[in-house]
Specification:
Blueprint: E1 2-8, H1 14-22, E2 39-42, E3 48-52, H2 64-75, E4 80-86, H3 90-103, E5 107-112, H4 115-119, E6 122-124, H5 126-133, E7 137-139, H6 148-154, H7 169-181, H8 189-196, H9 200-210, H10 217-223, H11 228-250, E8 251-253, H12 261-266, H13 272-315, H14 320-358, H15 360-374, H16 381-390, H17 392-398, H18 405-414, H19 424-434, H20 441-468, H21 490-525, E9 527-528, E10 531-532, H22 533-546, H23 552-560, H24 568-577, H25 588-597, H26 602-613, H27 619-629, H28 631-655
Parallel strand pairs: 1-3, 1-4, 4-5, 5-7
Antiparallel strand pairs: 2-3, 6-8, 9-10
Helix pairs in contact: 3-11, 7-8, 13-14, 13-20, 14-21, 15-16, 16-17, 17-27, 18-20, 18-28, 19-20, 19-26, 22-23, 23-24, 26-28, 27-28
């Protein structure tokens, strides 16, 4: 049975078209990265099998989805490719299509969502697009089921595009030279420039599949004199330039669409930034006000369950060496993570997802592009920053929407400067204890918003420094058409925010919290000369910690809180009280008295909050970075915010 590949960017209707052609009911979605696995089904009444590849933006090695799609295109047997794009935004889709045409020119271009063309006052010259690319182009509407029969008819036709484009003279020469060194059949143009880019993932894939190492001594010697970052920049520039030129030739606008009153405000040079700040303030105010009650309820329930588990352990005559590590170590850490993290996480994501689905968030990114360009980073980094407030690990995955390798790495390396929902509760708590009256939630929200704005400033500053030092190169092309405002489905918002986002993040946090809870208990219950290992380590760190306005207990708590930032404050309270396990977090006034009795002042509180903003990412984020871009950049992402935080606090405590 001949195979047909279904390719395209995320959110262009691939899964819906798959269901139409196969008469199946595969789950569909409209969020980035929904399609992770490969779906395979027979196209009804044909001899073709349809393979739905993961939605990607490029054929790099930035993510598992990109690797899966690229490897299938390069190494598997198939008849032809159906490439799906958003007809009203083909410029963005052309980037991936041009890369695919270098691998296989037997492509059908499926221009989906044509019903959006009239709404956006766009005229698309399909005949001209066919002439330029020399591939069949179909106007398709998955919603109205228009174009299905024509697409099925084309599956039996034979055609082959002769569209060829050349890179710069320098790059074409390098591709030709490396092709003479690489063994056949792996010396095609696409693999050659991936070798020049030092795409180790692709090289390893060839080695694993065919037991052939295409990087012999001659290739190594040749590559040693090549600047791979320059090669990547040249390719990005060419692909973006071609996409821009083709879309300019085939797209015309009937008339300039009048902006709505809200769009005028959000795109205004005067009001856009203040409105963005106001949205952040409202988001935090609602999170602070609404998260207290479910958090207190969960804490109460976990306390009752702990008492039950203790009584059960006593009743069963379990040895203390068994139940104490499990209850006082692992259980208490997990209960802290859930009761402190989950309520604000859910509330934040409900409002955040609403902004995302309604069209508010894309407008923020659209109108902040100028500011981000000034900082030598990508406009879409604004979207990853907004996502980081919910979860830094999600922001790392979300950075796949950035097509430039350099810009994506900058986004990943600086995203931990934006405090996530694991750190924001700590910032809120310390703010309400040392800066303002905790009952004044408006003022607390205002000050927390100022800290978030400071974190954005630091993130942009470090992005600029990285773009001039470690990650020099071409700035990626930013394509983001301002979408229409949409009515949102509340049930869909709740599902996306609670199940697909919050619960998935919580599960990851719990997984890394289990060994952390056990380790903290061991440190607190292992003694050397009548002093616990916890206190011994904090005493060692104490002199150095005072240089940055903290103490040994605080710094040790941050390191022990590496699995989940939510447990940092409970560890500090445990250390000060000399307890052998984490305590149930009591009210803020009691915690404040404990902190003050152990030397805390306004300066300590300020240093603590700034260090919360500028320190290493949590373990979940680090592991996500490792999966996305490798160990090297995971180490950088640990060191950069930590070094910046220590440096700024050291300077701050000299002058305060």
């Amino acid at each position: 049975m001949n195979k047909i590949l279904l390719c395209g960017n995320p959110n262009v209707g691939k899964s819906t078209i798959f269901n139409l052609l196969t008469k199946s009911n595969e789950h569909t979605g409209n969020w980035t990265g929904k399609t992770v696995d490969i779906a395979c089904k027979k196209i009804k009444n044909t001899n073709f099998e349809l393979i739905d590849l993961p939605g990607v933006y490029s054929l790099n090695s930035f993510s598992p989805e990109e690797c899966v799609t690229r490897n299938y295109l390069l190494f598997e047997d198939y008849e032809k490719i159906i490439y799906v794009c958003d007809a009203s935004n083909i410029e963005k889709s052309l980037l991936l299509l041009l890369q695919i045409l270098e691998i296989n020119n037997n492509v059908i271009l499926c221009l989906n969502m044509v019903d959006e063309l009239n709404k956006k006052n766009i005229v698309l010259d399909v005949k001209k697009l066919e002439r330029i690319l020399n591939i069949p182009c179909i106007m398709f509407s998955a919603k109205e089921k228009n174009g299905v029969n024509k697409l099925l008819d084309l599956l039996d036709d034979s055609y082959s595009s002769n569209y060829v484009f050349n890179y710069s003279l320098y790059l074409e020469e390098k591709i030709r030279e490396i092709s003479l060194l690489i063994k056949e059949p792996f010396n095609n143009k696409f693999i050659c420039y991936k070798v020049l880019e030092r795409d180790n993932n692709l090289i390893k894939e060839i080695n694993d599949r065919y037991n052939i190492n295409i990087i012999d001594d001659d290739v190594k010697k040749y590559l040693s004199a090549i600047n791979s970052e320059f090669i990547s920049d040249e390719i990005s520039i060419k692909l973006n330039d071609l996409s821009n030129k083709i879309s300019y030739k085939v797209i015309k606008r009937k008339s300039i669409k009048k902006l709505s009153f809200i769009d005028k405000l959000l795109s205004s040079k005067i009001f856009a930034l203040p409105l963005f700040i106001l949205l952040i303030f409202i988001l935090f105010y609602l999170t602070i006000v609404l998260a207290n009650y479910p958090g207190e309820l969960l804490s109460y329930l976990f306390d009752k369950l702990e008492l039950f588990l203790l009584n059960l352990s006593t009743y069963l005559n379990l040895p203390t060496i068994i139940y104490e590590p499990l209850i006082f170590g692992i259980y208490r850490v997990i209960s802290f993570v859930i009761s402190v993290m989950f309520p604000p996480l859910v509330i934040f994501f409900i409002f955040f997802t609403y902004m995302e689905e309604s069209g508010i968030l894309p407008r923020i990114a659209f109108n902040s592009d100028y500011l981000f360009n000034k900082c030598n980073c990508h406009g879409k980094q604004c979207l990853t920053m907004c996502t980081a407030i919910g979860c830094n690990a999600c922001a790392v995955v979300g950075s796949r929407i950035i097509d430039s390798k350099k810009d994506r790495l900058i986004s990943i390396l600086t995203n931990s400067f934006i405090p996530c929902n694991g750190r924001i509760p700590m910032i809120i708590a310390i703010t309400s204890m040392f800066f303002v009256n905790s009952n004044n939630k408006l003022l607390v929200s205002f000050i927390v918003t100022l800290f978030i704005l400071f974190s954005i400033f630091i993130s942009l500053l470090i992005s600029y420094i990285l773009s001039k030092t470690l990650l020099k190169g071409y700035n990626g092309f930013f394509i983001l058409e301002m979408p229409d405002f949409k009515k949102v489905n509340i049930l869909k918002i709740l599902k996306l925010s609670i199940i697909d986002k919050s619960i998935n993040i919580l599960i990851k946090a719990i997984k890394v919290s289990i060994p952390a809870g056990l380790f903290i208990w061991i440190l607190s219950n292992s003694f050397i000369h009548d002093i616990s290992l916890f206190n011994a380590l904090s005493n060692i760190l104490d002199p150095i910690s005072h240089l940055i306005g903290l103490d040994g207990v605080i710094v040790l708590a941050f390191f022990l809180g590496l699995p989940a930032n939510e447990i940092v404050l409970p560890i500090i309270v445990m250390g000060y009280l000399g307890n052998s396990s984490l305590n149930s977090l009591i009210d803020n006034d009691t915690i404040k008295n404990i902190l003050i009795n152990n030397g805390w002042s306004f300066k300590t509180a300020l240093s603590f909050i700034l260090f919360s903003i500028m320190h290493f990412p949590c373990m979940t984020t680090l592991l996500t970075i490792k999966d996305e871009v490798g160990y090297k950049w995971m180490i950088y992402s640990f060191l950069i915010p930590f070094i910046v935080g220590v440096s700024i606090l050291f300077i701050l405590n000299i002058f305060i």
